[in-house]
Amino acid sequence: MTPTHEKQEFVTVLVRDPRTHKGDSWHSYIDYEIFIHTNSMCFTRKTSCVRRRFREFVWLRQRLQSNAVLIQLPDLPSKTPFFNMNNPHHVDHRRQGLQEFLEKILQDALLLSDSRLHLFLQTQLSPEDMEACVSGQTKYTVADAIHKFASLNRRFPIEDEEGKKGKNDTDSDSESSSSGLGPSDDSISCGCKASPASEES
């Protein structure tokens, strides 16, 4: 008889595909694709893909730290005045640092319980909208936000609960929705075109 193996939970996170977005000579920034594949019950979606910029990682770390004061969070790659977004080595070094940061975060059960982390990884909501959502100031829940983003971003196969042919399954990139859940300024479908730049990388 073969021994029964419990299905082991895993979370794979990849930070990849850095892209430079130029608004004008003073306002350029780089964003990175964050790809998640998991079988963890902690996640609303088992596969997702979003784009985030460095300052959003900074926001995430600050919020996670303020909600888990007894945990020493891993550091982000340092923000140096010598960072050059035209230097592939600098960009890749930062990308690697962001991936290592997320890999460590996703190993901590307490941090995994923070709704901001899930909104960061599985929606394109701005930090302001993520805060409003977790504070109950929006008409939509965290799960609503994640499902809505997934429905607007059909890069991956439809998951179980959406097996039926959806009436709203139109592959729309529309920025408005009846739930009030249109993507924010930083919103981009994965694949993905970015919004015009505002400031810093």
Keywords for this entry:
disordered C terminus; 31% helix; globular; 6 helices; alpha+beta; 201 residues
Structure report:
Helices cover 31% and strands 15% of the residues. It has a three-stranded antiparallel β-sheet. The chain is globular and about 45 Å long. With 201 residues, the chain is of the alpha+beta class.
- The oligomeric state of the chains shown is single chain
Distance between the termini: 57 Å
Query: What is the average per-residue confidence, as pLDDT, rounded to a whole number?
Result: 79
Judged by helices, strands and strand pairing, the structural class is alpha+beta
User: Which shape, going by the Cα principal axes?
Assistant: globular
* Helix content range: 25-40%
Radius of gyration, CA atoms, in whole angstroms: 18 Å
Short description:
With 201 residues, the protein is of the alpha+beta class. Helix content is 31%, strand content 15%. It has helices at residues 54-67, 88-105, 109-112, 115-122, 127-134, 142-152, and strands at 11-22, 28-38, 47-53.
